[in-house]
Amino acid sequence: MKKLALVDPEAASLVEAELYRQNKNLELIASENFVSEAILEAQGSILTNKYAEGYPGNRYHGGCEQIDKIEDLAIKRACDLFGAEHANVQPHSGVNANLAAYMALLKPGETILGMLLQHGGHLSHGSKASITGNYYKGIFYGVSPDTEMIDYDEVEEIAKKHRPQLIVAGGSAYPRTIDFARFREIADLVGAFFLVDMAHIAGLIAAGIHPTPIPYADVVTSTTTKTMRGARGGFILSKKERAKAIDKAVFPGTQGGPILQNVLAKAVTFRLASTNTFREYQAQVKTNAAFLADRLQEKGLRLVAGGTDNHLMLVDLRPIGLTGKEGEEILESVGITVNKNLIPFDPNPPAVTSGIRIGTAAITSRGMKEREIEEISDIIFGSLTKDPSLKRDIFRKKVYDLCQEFPLYLDPFEFACI
Ligand SMILES: Cc1ncc(COP(=O)(O)O)c(C=O)c1O
Q1: In CATH terms, is domain 276-405 a member of 3.90.1150.10?
Q2: Model's pTM, two decimal places?
Q3: Is residue 136 annotated as a catalytic residue, yes or no?
Q4: Which one, of 132, 239, 115, lies nearest residue 178 by Cα?
């Protein structure tokens, strides 16, 4: 940041302030993580200077010898890591990956059966608020009111009734394991394509901790962020037979030239994700989530679907008289960052919600384990009240001390991530 501080002190001071915030707060937003310094370097590299429309060996710009090698490296590493036949590493984000995948598989106006946003799905799975629900027809399945888990028989019923051209599994707030084989059966019953958006659980899948969708899905989309702990961006995996259509749908279908510094950072992300250290990290992410879920439930909090099988959980705050918005604000005041989140059958609107979503990927990257999770569960439970007599400063101090003990980006060897 030395050069930035010299050229633009105002911008540099904002970055410094954000680093301070990241360092002094506990990050429990389920979609966030801390990348290694190698990835920061890759994303800040001179590759930003280059244009390279097209694909390795077939570009619309000259001077792509090194760029081709970099993109090929990212593609090979993605395929090796997930056991996929084809990878496209150019999508700028998760939504871009989904858009391109839909374009490759569907005609405008065809039907996508995705998970309800309110039950844990994602906007880009056919919601009217997104281009995906306007350009295509979105219909939805939800979770069962009894178990708050996907009711596969209901998915089958809806699929048989509406005969969608595409079924999408995956979401941004679903705490339980997804049965990809069952989804494949349903897709086959109605002659639909099957797409898995593994953005949230990609790291767990890469580490073999969540079942892989690769044998079942026609197309798999993802971000390289969240549990993947990598570059900001997206990627698409598919069988060889879909490779041409997917590549055409990414460029020129929905994007221009790739963001090459991100493609490089994705290559590094995939390399790091193939290490034993990463597998150990993912195991700890899952252990931490299960441990936190158990502690919060022991204290009397209600968890949607009764707990978690992955890195995230949804806490229903209604039994303790709080909305999700209030919960988020209270936790923010003690230095814990979470997001308010709709829970299934939520009576509150999205700007208020009845729940908060909590994830353990980021705090596990800081090195926190069960001992720290125990303390974090005490802080969360202790501070989640509107009681004005509660001294929040005590909890703020505990958070501060924990963050001091597990510093971010201060000692590169401490936080090597490999
Ligand atoms: C399941 C899922 N898909 C797609 C996305 C979109 O990713 P991006 O914000 O990179 O476009 C998200 C982001 O949270 C997500 O959770």
Answers
A1: yes
A2: 0.96
A3: no
A4: 115
